[in-house]
Amino acid sequence: MTSCNEDETLVRKGKPAISLAENGTTTAVVEGDDIVMTFNLDYALKDATQVRVEFSGDGVTYSDFNETTINDAGGGFFGGEGFFINIPAFTETFTYNFKTVQDIFPEATEEVTFKFYSAAKAYATIDQEMTVTMTNYVQPNDDVTIRLEWPNAASTNGDFSGCDIDYDLEVYDGGFGLFDDSYYDCPEVIVLAETAPDGNYFVVPSLYDLGGTPDTAADAVNLPFKLVIYKAGLWYNEIDFNDPAFNSFDGVGAATLGAVLVKTGTSFELQDGNGDTISTGRMGLPQFSSSRK
Question: Which domains does the chain have, with CATH numbers?
Answer without folding.
Answer: 15-135 (2.60.40.2030), 144-292 (2.60.60)
